[in-house]
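thought: fold this chain, then report.
action: predict
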Amino acid sequence: RELIEHALTNARQTLGRKLAEDSSQEKLLAALGGLFGLPTPPRRVEVYDNSHTGGTQAIGAMIVAGPAGFMKAHYRTFNIAGEAITPGDDYAMMRQVLTRRFTRLAKETENENDAEAFPSKPDLVLIDGGRGQFDVARETLAASGLTNVAVVGIAKGADRNACRETFFVEGREPFRLPPHDPALYFVQRLRDEAHRFAIGTHRAKRKKAFTTNPLDEIAGVGPARKRALLLAFGSAKAIAGAALSDLEKTPGVNKATARLVFEHFQRGD
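observation:
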């Protein structure tokens, strides 16, 4: 059964790529514009996704697409943090990411006279999520004063089944698209790119967190003295709890360095 399901997934993805490739980017953008009620085909589409491990190392990702395809120079990531964020609260994470993005955008002055320039303001925002994320996105954009940007939520199908996505658009009942609609495959490509970018950035952040030593944050303490401290105490946690007199007794560590280390951990830096 697993082999068959894997084969079906591969077949769907292959078909999706084929259908999408058969349509030009302009046609696909025009299809999105018509599908989501835009007056003209979108020139800038922004797609948002979050990634985290149990709420830790949370990352928000934004990918951008336009008439020339994916605009990777415009991709952005957001480190999600703050006491107001409960680990695993996807709504609060999405609110923080969108608030940071659109509060800043609202303060920028876009050159509306240059019709050829790729815009900094999106015509369409796609959110990887259902009704809850969709409502958060609409509220956040409204609070930022950007009420003329179309927002669409994309909820995965049952059992995360591709081609069974449900779309949330303001003023309409949730709806699905026919399984072989090129616009559906285009949306899936956009969403999957956002997911890939979010996952990749999150994994890089998690790897860095695993390999970073608290001693690396202490300015003026070089590699040799860090090794001497670790050799003497066994771990950064033990060093953090050591008394100043014990640090000063470490072979290869002078009193000035010992005090730097002691004061760093006493301050809780």
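thought: worth noting. The chain has a mean pLDDT of 85.
final: tokens above.
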